[in-house]
Amino acid sequence: MSNHKAFIFDLDGVIVDTAKFHFLAWRKLANDLGFDFTEAQNEQLKGVSRIESLKKILKWGEMELSEEDFHRQMALKNENYLSYVDEMDKSEILPGVPKILSYLMEHKIPFALGSASKNARTILKKIDLYDKFDAIVDGTDVTKAKPDPEVFLIAAEKLNTTAQNCVVFEDSVAGVHAANIGKMKSIGIGNEKVLHEADYVFADFTEIEIEFIEKLLRNEK
Ligand code: BG6
Ligand code: MG
User: Fold this and answer.
1) Using N-to-C axis directions, what is the helix angle for 19-33 and 67-85, rounded to 10°?
2) CA-to-CA distance for 58 and 30, rounded, in angstroms?
3) Which end of the chain is more exposed for a tag (fewer CB within 10 A), N or C?
4) What are the helix (H) ranges across 44-119?
5) d(CA 80, CA 185)
6) pLDDT digit string (tens) for 150-190?
7) Average pLDDT, stretch 64-89?
8) 6-16+90-217 belongs to which homologous superfamily?
9) Domain range list for the chain
10) CA–CA separation, 49 vs 140, rounded Å?
11) How many angstroms separate the CA atoms of 133 and 10, rounded?
């Protein structure tokens, strides 16, 4: 195992704003079932697998579904979600992200994707980033959902480095916990109040200067 720094990016809400599409699709599902949930509740869905998300939502609506209906609703939600994804192209990459990825590529610093989504590869292809990552770990590669660190630990292994050398960018509470539990450095992207357990929080990538990345690389941060 070599001892080099590496970066791991979550996808939804970090590289692209698909978090809003997940919200719209889950909310439609809830509304169709006759109830609603708030944006604050939605924070608890970020980073959480499809199956765990539906379990949480049904609890909020105090509803139970048969196993067959549960799977049907999950499939409907995904179909609805993918109708938004279908419209995506590389213009959806969030501001500030290309600058950081270009820096990492220029300096040959390895980086991976660490996402709970089973649609991650489809989305990366749509936004032309599929070939840029040194490793991709997504919802099809893991057995345990965030906040379990499995997804990031597999990414570290694929990048041939230790957890302690990894820096994780995350927009979700579950993902920040996963990075922390995995003993990685956690950088929250979003609201400081929500992501207060991260080592650092930035509203978005335009706030992250290259100097900050360089300090992380030199272990000064
Ligand atoms: C995470 C999202 O990245 O992926 C969650 O933050 C989502 O909202 C999860 O539920 C699973 O995604 P998918 O695309 O497999 O349904
Ligand atoms: Mg996310």
Assistant:
1) 140
2) 8
3) N
4) 50-60, 67-85, 97-106
5) 34
6) 999 999 999 999 999 999 999 999 999 999 999 999 999 99
7) 97
8) HAD superfamily/HAD-like (3.40.50.1000)
9) 6-16+90-217, 19-85
10) 10
11) 12
**Mean pLDDT value across residues 30-52:** 94
Which amino acid residue places its CA nearest to atom 1 of ligand 1?
47
Ligand 1, atom 8: closest residue by C-alpha: 46
Q: Tokens representing 201?
A: 């929080």
Question: Residue 9 and residue 15: Cα distance in Å, rounded?
Answer: 8
pLDDT tens digits, residue range 100-112? 999 999 999 999 9
In the structure, ligand 2 is a single-atom ion and the residues with CB under 5 Å from it are 10, 12-13, 171-172
pLDDT of 1 higher than 70: no
Rounded Cα gap, residues 13 and 19, in angstroms: 5
Superfamily of domain 19-85 in CATH is Putative phosphatase; domain 2 (1.10.150.240)
Give the residue among 68, 76, 64 at the shortest CA–CA distance from 32: 76
Does residue 153 have its Cβ closer than 6 Å to ligand 1? no
pLDDT at 115: 97
